[in-house]
Amino acid sequence: MAIHLVLPISILLSSFSGAVVSATTFTLTNSCGYTVWPGLLSSAGSPPLPTTGFALAPGESRAVDAPASWSGRIWGRTLCAADQAGSGRFACATGECGSGTVECAGGGAAPPTTLAEFTLDGAGGNDFYDVSLVDGSNLPMVVVPQGGGAGGNCGATGCLVDLNGPCPADLKVVGSDGAGIACKSACGAYGRPQDCCSGDYGTPATCEPSASSLFFKNACPRAYSYAYDDATSTFTCTSGTASYLITFCPSISSLKSSVSSNSGGSTNPAGLPLVNDTVSFAGRGDRSSSSYPYAYASAPCPLVLAAAVFTWLCVASHHRLRL
User: Fold this and answer.
1) How large is the C-alpha radius of gyration of the chain?
2) How far is 51 from 66, CA to CA, in rounded Å?
3) Structural domains in the chain (count)
């Protein structure tokens, strides 16, 4: 009799515990015209993901399930190949994680790299996420929550603009053909405390946006542009209610599809603006010091149009995806 009683109880407890633990799905989509190798890094003490790196061909998607309370980073590596000279070591021109294989195996992204950062089931029962250009940029990337409920600041974020071309010369990383393949942050380029928000500049009161960070912010107003850019760049969804679509090189049409499918088919009555991924420059140097060695980026009409896409995302699904 005891055996018959224990077995159902153990099954019940197992079923209950299985219902409590839930996974969050990240769907990574490559809308670039070239292969991207996503890298995934779990934070210290965070449970591991089933993969830490793989290849995504143009147009390909892959789902990755993250365990409850996971935190870490996701990014795209570009221009990757195995060494043909004999070692066979796998390496990438941007986003390199140093593992020597397609799997990053605990290695983080070498800057400059566009980063998607997540903390699942964080404070207040919320998922926290952002797209960061603090370490520079190597390709456009957008995060769009699918679901998420009506609470919090649960909306699309990221960078629609390919900054590799318009990147200031002193920040630009070029490939073997001389074309831009990434754009450094000022911290990465110069390492000065005022650029890195370190030393005497290690607080929000003392570390202010530079002309370099404004280049990124003007182009990508929802992304982190420097260390203390929290107010406009951190987003939250109620934990356990959202999955996340991460798109490399997103197009307006793909954003429209992903947002509309999450908002009951809402549309934008004003229509979608076109995006021209260029940046113009007005003068040189920091606005407070003529010796500051950065290009100051203005926000011309094309970048205003890019920002307008995010405005449309807000209008199209105000009750589900608030920006």
Assistant:
1) 21
2) 10
3) 1
Helix (H, G, I), strand (E, B) or coil at 41: strand
| Phi, psi angle pair for 321, to nearest 5° | -125, 90
Distance CA 143, CA 57 (A): 19
Query: Residue 78 is part of which domain span?
Result: 24-261
The pLDDT, as a whole number, for residue 150 is: 60
The end-to-end CA distance of the chain, in Å, is: 59
d(C-alpha 183, C-alpha 156), whole Å: 23
Q: Is residue 87 part of a domain?
A: yes
Q: What is the pLDDT of residue 311?
A: 42
CA distances for 214 relative to 54, 175, 217, 296, angstroms: 33, 25, 5, 7
C-alpha span between 53 and 132 (Å, rounded) = 19
Q: How far apart are CA 34 and CA 81, in angstroms?
A: 13
Q: Quick one: tokens of 121? A: 């089931």
Low-confidence ranges of the chain (pLDDT < 70): 1-21, 149-152, 253-323
Q: How long is the chain?
A: 323
In a domain, 64, yes or no: yes
Residue-wise pLDDT for 212-263, tens only, equals 889 999 899 999 998 998 888 899 999 999 999 999 999 876 665 555 455 4
Strand partners, 224: 132
CATH number at residue 106: 2.60.110.10
